[in-house]
Amino acid sequence: MGKILVLAEKPSVARDLAKVLNCSQNANGCIMGSKYIVTWALGHLVTLADPEAYGNKYKSWNLEDLPMLPNKMELVVIKQTSKQFGAVKALMNRADVDELVIATDAGREGELVARWIIMKAGFKKPIKRLWISSQTDKAIKEGFAHLKPGREYDNLFYSAQSRSEADWLVGLNVTRALTCKHNAQLSAGRVQTPTLAMIVDREEEIRKFVPKDFWSIQAQFNGFTVHWQDRVSSQTRTFNKEQADGIVQRITGQLGEVVEVKKEMKKELPPLAYDLTELQRDANRRYAYSAKQTLNIMQKLYEAHKLVTYPRTDSRYITTDIVPTLTERLKSIAVGPYAKAVQGVLRSRINVTGRFADNSKVTDHHAIIPTEQYVNLSALSSEERNIYDLIVKRFIAVLSAPFEYEQTTVRLNVNGESFHARGRIVKSWGWKTVYEGFGKLEEDNDEEEDEQSLPDIQKGHKAKINSPKAINGKTKPPARYTEATLLSAMEHPGRFVDNKALKETLESTSGLGTPATRADIIEKLFNTFYIERRGKEIYPTSKGIQLIGLVPKDLKSPELTAKWEQQLAMISKGTVNPNIFVGDMKKYATKLVGAVIADSGQFKHDNVTREKCPECGKYMLDVNGKKGKMLVCPDRECGYRKTVTIVSNARCPECHKKMEIKGEGDKKSFYCSCGYREKLDAFKQRKGEQVDKREVAQFMRHQETDEPINSALADALAKWKK
Fold first, then answer.
1. DSSP readout, 234-256?
2. What is the pLDDT of residues 51-68, one digit of tens each?
3. With a cut of 70, which residues of the chain have pLDDT below it?
4. Looking only at Cα atoms, what is the longest distance across the chain?
5. Catalytic residue among 58, 302, 310, 317
6. d(CA 272, CA 157)
7. Is residue 223 left, alpha or beta, with left meaning phi > 0 and alpha meaning psi from -120 to 50?
8. How far is 246 from 64, CA to CA, in rounded Å?
9. Which positions ≥6 away from 574 have C-beta within 8 Å?
10. 509-512: long-range contacts at Cβ-Cβ below 8 A with a sequence spacing of 24 or more?
11. Domain 213-269+404-474 adopts which CATH fold?
12. pLDDT, tens digit, for every residue of 255-281?
């Protein structure tokens, strides 16, 4: 009897599949069993060929050779992972392998990983598809019991391939054009450029902003605070100081009369479940985790711990077939701090409405929820614990009762001026009990007045107005983006477009990028020194601001990239021909290259140091990297980088701020902005007294290494994105 070859995306997933499929014999790049052979990719094993593959003339970068428009895009094996590709190809060519099951991540990119390997290896036998949303044994067994024919996912692959080819055509051509024209490491892309443009535009708004004085008027009445409101416009502030002073004068010593007391019962429904973007937003607000960091932690919770469902989802709903599993999922998380809340939900019987279970709002994957796997909280790192905590609390909240309260609004008349106060009495805390003592996750809204306790008061009641005053404030510029607010802007770029039809188009697509790619786009902007982080806020660098001045106008617009995503979504549904889309992209790349060449703008490095590159002799640039200050060579072909300072996780013993590490080898020292300084030896001795020496050594290694790159494709792309 022939064997079935199973292709997973990563070795960790392959091991899980092998265990369920009774494969236990380790061999070259695979795990074998009597019926199945499980093998794996390492992320991408195959990628689109570099321009050099299409002719020697592309080995050097010249404006006159642009645009580069290959008739047929070639695939190449990625050098770093070629050994594993060889193992997979050999397995595909085995005479006793009768069919293949694609078990890569169930999404657009996962489909691409598998199909390119299949194409490059020349595999022609029957293909089936495993499509699951969690990595538990139960989900894997059910998935293998319901395998789909591979052809059902052909259009998803065409969509993924079209996206990749369009990125190559536009990204590489515009990047080469900008780099050659301005002799600097400049790059552009269909998603990164509009995202950078939003950050640059926001900085320009802040720079041009002129604060204006305003006044709000408040007073004491019957033991509570009342606020003035304009009778005509309903505004609670005035920009006219004379008007404010006049109102205070008019009400001083006067009686106020209650003209309306309005009581109404209000309900606040639970929040929707998490999709990836919403989870990344909350993790950034609460823990200051970057979008990329959150995604990496999620992958571990999904693959290694099997505690959560597929992370790269854009849906905040579940399908109706998941509803019968909710009780089991609740029982699996009923441990430690969650036990009491879970018991409360189970006691009141789960009532799932269309706000949570809605098949029409789920495409590839449902919302992120816990799996049925029992959780051992002590096995999680602190970062994993934090993200898991967000997911579990949101899951319990979604299944809880609404928050209910009685809101009272009191309006009074004081010598012709209108004042109001608002208060509320909580009737049922409902889902908010889950977040008791958790603090606020929403962005604070300065405009909202604080709710206060109001006495039982009747219409017609009169009392003297006390302590009236006009409070001076200043209008604030728009806030700089944090990763949380930037993710929101990328998800809903329609607000940056005036055209109503285009706004609707934007809102009906996934926005700028997809939930799976947004974190990488933001990281890329940091790594290419177009933006930098100061605290939680994101600032554009001079390089980023200049680039936005140089790139063609429509590449900066969110309209364009959303239209692309819409086209790609239609390709995945089979309603748009991928060849027509790629043909349009070739025309578009030609137009963009022409625009770059015709542009009269200049690029100037304003961060040049007096230190020469040890490899090519050019003066290096001073930049703020993600982990500290760096010196980088401006020459594209050299690419030398040197770390000057690293922002460490070590806290200053005097002021408790994070310290910087400067110097090399034995001369390394810790520096703090408060003036504290400590040599590395002294630091090791001080820390060694408190913790194991191996932990100190591990800490130092961690400071010096960047986060691991997820896939070999990222390495292959790196030279395009500089």
1. --S-BS-HHHHHHHHHHHTT-EE
2. 999 999 998 889 999 999
3. 439-450, 496-499, 501-510, 626-627, 665-666, 686-722
4. 99
5. 310
6. 30
7. left
8. 71
9. 155
10. 509/562, 509/563, 509/565, 509/566, 509/569, 510/314, 510/565, 510/569, 511/558, 511/562, 511/565, 512/191, 512/194, 512/195, 512/558, 512/561, 512/562
11. Topoisomerase I; domain 3 (2.70.20)
12. 999 999 999 999 999 999 999 999 999
Per-domain residue ranges of the chain: 3-146, 164-207+490-598, 213-269+404-474, 276-398, 619-721
For residue 701, the model assigns a pLDDT of: 55
What one-character DSSP code corresponds to residue 17? H
Q: What is the pLDDT of residue 155?
A: 97
In degrees and rounded to multiples of 5, residue 646 shows phi and psi of -120, 130
The answer to whether the annotation marks 9 as part of a ligand binding site is yes
CA separation for the pair 51, 173 (Å, rounded): 10
Q: Tokens representing 480?
A: 């700089």
Cα dihedral value 62, 182, 520, 163, nearest 10: -40
**CATH number belonging to the domain at 3-146, selected among 3.40.190.10, 3.40.50.140, 3.90.1150.10, 3.30.1380.20:** 3.40.50.140
The answer for residues whose C-beta is within 8 angstroms of residue 448's C-beta and 6 or more apart is: none
Q: Distance between CA 37 and CA 203 in Å, rounded?
A: 55
What size, in residues, is the chain? 722
Domain 276-398 carries which CATH code? 1.10.290.10
Q: Is 692 marked within a binding site?
A: no
- How far is the C-alpha of 54 from the C-alpha of 387, rounded, in Å? 45
Contact assessment for residue 475 and residue 239, using Cβ atoms and an 8 Å cutoff:
no
What burial letters (b/e) apply to 618-630, b meaning 16+ CB within 10 Å? eebbebbbbbbbb
- Strands (DSSP E) contained in 446-517 are 462-474
302 catalytic per annotation:
no
Cis peptide upstream of residue 211 (ω within 30 degrees of 0)? no
Token pair recorded at residue 162: 């079209």
| CATH number attached to the domain at 164-207+490-598 | 1.10.460.10
Number of Cβ atoms within 10 Å of the Cβ of 394 = 26
Tokens found for residue 708: 């691991």
Instruction: Reduce the DSSP state of residue 650 to 3 states and report it.
Output: strand
CA dihedral (502, 503, 506, 507) positive or negative = negative
Strands 127-129 and 97-103: parallel
